[in-house]
Amino acid sequence: MKKLLSLTASALFLVACSEKPGYVISGSVSDAEANGKYVYLHQAPFKGNQAAIDSALVENNSFTFTGTADTAKACVIAFLKEGARPKTVEFVLENATLTATLNDTERSVVGSPANDNLVAFFQQLKELNESGKTIAEELKSEDKAIAEAAKEKEEAFEKQLNDLY
Fold it and tell me: What pTM did the predictor assign?
């Protein structure tokens, strides 16, 4: 009996160790109409009419994707609502436990170094684009001093943008 118990325990251990690691993406959608609808997992770039890799039902404004990624790849989670622009978030699909947020003010996937870095990149890009808008307005200024100063800012802006990429 002890041998049988030992053999069973060893077999269970080997099966548990041989399982491929997978991904779990737990997410939330802040949309009153999301419950009972689906969010879709697509390979990036998202074109709207491409076939989804997977779908998940939204219940209590939450959803979960599970699976196994053979390699890390750029993907998009999309919530499609008739008559509105889709809510999307780009991320790196990899075998990890990830948390997705699709809100009007925040769209992110975090939980792995690659995705945390991607969120930081998008935040820096957003901030840089805001300063770029200001520079663009200053370049149009009728005041020559402001326009000249904006040209210098534009060069620094382009360097920052290139460095970020």
Answer: 0.73
